[in-house]
Amino acid sequence: MKQLLLVFVGGGFGSVLRYIIGKHMNNPETGIPYGTFAANILGSLLIGVVLGMATKNNTLSENHTLLLATGFCGGFTTFSAFAYENQVFLKSGDFVSFAVYTIASFVVGFLAVFAGMYLVKFI
After folding, report:
1. 88: Cβ–Cβ under 8 A, 6 or more apart, which residues?
2. Closest CA to 18 of 94, 71, 56
3. What is the pLDDT of residue 92?
C-alpha cells in the first residue's frame, strides 16, 4: 500500500508540473507543443539521473525510485499528449513539423536519458 501511495503522490506532482509547463510554453498560435517537448526531455534527463543513482551503489532506495522514476517521471512525461500532438500535425498536413517533432523527441529524449545516467558518475 505504501508503494502505491508513493507512485500516486509522485505522479500527481509530475502531472501538475507538466500542466504548468505546457500552459506556459505550448504555443496556441502556431500549435507547436514546446511544453510537452520540454517536459518529455526534462523527464528523460531526470529518469536517467534517478535510475543512474539507484544503480550506483544503491544510492536511492526502492521507495525513492518508485516516488521519483515511476511516480514523478511517469506523471511528468506524457506519451499520450505526444501522440495527440502528432495526430494534429498529420491531420493538418504539417508533415515537416510532424517529422521534426517526432525525430527530435526520440533522439533528444534518448540522449537525455544517457546524459542523466552519465551525470550520475560525477555526483
Report:
1. 31
2. 71
3. 95
- Per-domain residue ranges of the chain: 34-120
Whole-model pTM: value is 0.86
Across the chain, what does the average pLDDT equal? 93
**Can you list the alpha helix ranges (DSSP code H) found in the chain?**
2-25, 34-55, 62-65, 74-76, 79-91, 95-120
**64 CB contacts (<8 Å, ≥6 apart)?**
50, 54
Tell me how far apart the alpha carbons of residues 77 and 20 are, in angstroms, rounded to a whole number.
13
pLDDT of residue 112: 96
Model confidence at 28, in pLDDT bands (50, 70, 90)? confident
Dmax (CA) for the chain in angstroms is 50
SS3 27: strand
- What is d(CA 72, CA 46) in angstroms, rounded to the nearest whole number? 10
CA 83 to chain centre: 14
The amino acid that residue 107 corresponds to is V
CA–CA distance, 78 with 20 (Å, rounded to integer):
14
